Amino acid sequence: MSSATTTTHVIGLISDTHGLVRPRVHEALAGVELILHAGDVGGDEVLDELALIAPVLAVYGNTDPPGQPRLAESIERMVDGVSIHVSHGHEVGSPTPARLLARYAAQVIVYGHTHRQHVAHVDGRLVVNPGAAGARRFKLEPSVARLTITNGRGEVELLALE
User: Fold this and answer.
1) Residue-level pLDDT at 132
2) Per-residue pLDDT, 1
3) Which of 28, 59, 82, 136 is the most exposed place for a label (fewest CB within 10 A)?
4) Which among 35, 89, 95, 97 is positioned nearest to 62, based on CA atoms?
5) Angle at 112 between CA 106 and CA 129, to 5 degrees
């Protein structure tokens, strides 16, 4: 009898912090191996606070000043055979799953900008906006997400911060 090995990776997804890391973020993202920030970070203090939870990779948002050495234009990662793309989304105008899927080839696309939580499964691909984790805006509930990749398959869970 052969035993199959199950590999699981849990990645925290966060966006639109705008300079604020809510205390609940520490609980919501506890135990993740990596945090991917989809932009509108609001300063190095946010990245430093998130790094207390796990290593952080972050992209520029439309409100982040240019020239920030800790922010990239986009992130491309491969985790357990799953390709992941992270960008803020504003680069496609008003980001929608269709526009992002047309532009990026990754199996999992993570974006922010709209402040609205959204998860779309399209033809075996996953498009995720974890929502805005910073100050409440537009009457939207602050949130983050956990991306779990198990044996080459990604699933996402949205987590409210209030």
Assistant:
1) 95
2) 47
3) 136
4) 89
5) 65
CATH topology of domain 9-160: Purple Acid Phosphatase; chain A, domain 2 (3.60.21)
pLDDT of residue 4: 63
**Residue 90: what residue type?**
H
Under 8 Å between Cβ of 97 and 122: yes
Give me 74's structure tokens.
């986009």
Residue 115 gets the label, from left (phi > 0), alpha (psi -120 to 50) or beta, of: left
Torsion angle, alpha carbons of 23, 9, 121, 107, to 10: 120
Q: Which stretches of the chain score pLDDT less than 50?
A: 1-2
Could you state, in order of their start, the residue ranges of all structural domains in the chain? 9-160
Tell the residue number behind the tokens 């779990």, with chain if given: 148
What predicted TM-score, i.e. pTM, was given to this entire model?
0.94
Q: Convert the pLDDT of each residue in 117-127 to its tens digit.
A: 999 999 999 99
Q: What's the pLDDT score for residue 74? A: 97
